[in-house]
Amino acid sequence: MQRERELRLRMYPSAAEAVRGILDRSDLLWSRRPEHPEFLRVRLGLGTIVPSTTVAQLRPNGVPEFLSEARAVASEHGVRAAGGCSDRRPAVGIGVCGGSSQLDGVARAVLAQIVGLHSPADVVVACLTSVRHRGRWEWLQWLPHCDSPQSPLQGQHLSADPGTGSMLLAQLEELLDARDGQTARPRGPALGDEDDPVLPSVVLVVADTTVNAPGRSGVGGVLDNIRVVRLNRPSRCPDD
Question: Residue 235's pLDDT is what?
Fold first, then answer.
């Protein structure tokens, strides 16, 4: 169990480790590839998880002392203090709620893992927010993932007003329609029953869009909030 715990922690490094990899330009920087099973999976915390190996059915006529030890191992049922991660397929929306200080910290931790572990050639980041909260997300403009030559999005990837927000939202909808049913050429080792992602994958940050123009058709209105929710439909595109 200890060995698997160490393996899981290496597979899903913490946000602090991802940031350290960026600052040190270590081998961890942009080390995730689309063919890796952990691609676009992020650590959400530490806890007890189901181990990848299980104890076989115990024989009742075994050596008592060994049987007792085997029962003790089987009773653990999980790997403790291991990294619990999000799933990347089908499309997954990670919701974060709470006070602004806690919310921003968790959101930044998730994004730090995404941009620190994934190349801007494979993952693009976009953001829809409000004028009031623009300052909280301006730091995204310095990320190469928001200005990647491989990005399928044109123009600004960061929006804090209804005008640019509507244009960005329309581009995302067009991208989903274009990718609907599209498959990617396999790369690297097989990922089991999972499909290879259509690249680059797009990570969209949606932060407090409702204060821009309540009730209007621009970003922040009821109509556009519904459109934003529909972007996360797995049936349309499994990776964005």
Answer: 45
Whose tokens are 């200890």? That residue is 2
Query: What distance lies between CA 150 and its chain's CA centroid?
Result: 19
Q: Is residue 201 within 8 Å of residue 195, measured between CB atoms?
A: no
Residues 115/197, Cβ–Cβ less than 8 Å: no
Report DSSP letters for 117-148, one per residue.
HB-TTTEEEEEEE-STTHHHHGGGGGSGGGS-
- Tokens 């909030």 — which residue? 225
DSSP state, residue 170: H
**What Cα–Cα distance (Å) separates residue 8 from each residue in 14, 26, 102, 194, 230?**
11, 19, 25, 20, 33
Place of tokens 């006070």: 99
What pLDDT, in 10s, does the model give residues 87-145? 655 456 888 888 777 888 999 999 999 999 999 999 999 999 888 888 999 999 999 99
Place of tokens 């806690």: 102
Distance of alpha carbon 130 from alpha carbon 208, whole angstroms: 6
CA distance 239 to 176: 10
Rounded to whole angstroms, the Cα distance separating 106 from 98 reads 10
pLDDT of residue 212: 45
Of 62-71, 149-158, 201-210, the one with minimum mean pLDDT is 62-71
Higher pLDDT, 31 or 214: 31
Q: Helix 162-179 to helix 222-230 angle, to the nearest 10 degrees?
A: 30
**Of residues 124, 165, 170, the one with CA closest to residue 145:** 124
